[in-house]
Amino acid sequence: MESKNMLDKATPPPLPQNTVNNHAAEANYGIIDWFKKGLKNYVNFSGRARRKEYWYFFLVQMGLIIAAIVLDAIIFSSETGLFYIIVALGLFLPGIAVSIRRLHDTSRSGWWFLISIVPLIGSIILLVFMASETKFETNQWGPPAK
């Protein structure tokens, strides 16, 4: 009886159903749904992010930044950049989080994100990492996101 109680304490409980990836629902996601998924996980630096999630998040982020720059130019007619600062600060953490989760999906540590500090070559290497195919085996960051 004592060994059974020890086993129960050592065995983790099963994961709730809402934490398991629902790939059937993601098949119907649009660009805004992927962006919202990235925003909902804005401080989740563990786990994995599919290529779709990363690139759609990046696309919407660039669109919002360009729209903010245009609004700043039209409204303020100076280099104040109020809208740009708001958008850039608002998307700073979600952008880093989705990038790190994307690196995890390619079986790389999130620390590889710092390679972008190296001028030109670092950004090219990071671009290749972000565009590479998902690693389909389960790694230390969880099951495949795809």
Question: What would your notes on this structure say?
Answer:
This protein is an all-alpha fold. It has seven helices and no strands. It has helices at residues 2-10, 23-26, 31-40, 51-76, 82-90, 92-105, 121-131. Helix 3 (31-40) packs across helix 4 (51-76) and helix 4 (51-76) runs antiparallel to helix 6 (92-105). The chain is globular, with a radius of gyration of 19 Å.
Proportion of beta-strand residues: under 5%
Q: Fraction of residues in helices?
A: 55-70%
Overall shape: it is globular
Counting DSSP H or I runs of 4 or more residues, the number of helices is: 7
Radius of gyration: 19 Å
Class from helix and strand fractions? mainly alpha
State the end-to-end CA separation.
Answer: 42 Å
Largest sheet: none
SSE topology string: HHHHHHH
Number of strands: 0
Mean pLDDT: 84
Uncertain segments: 15-19
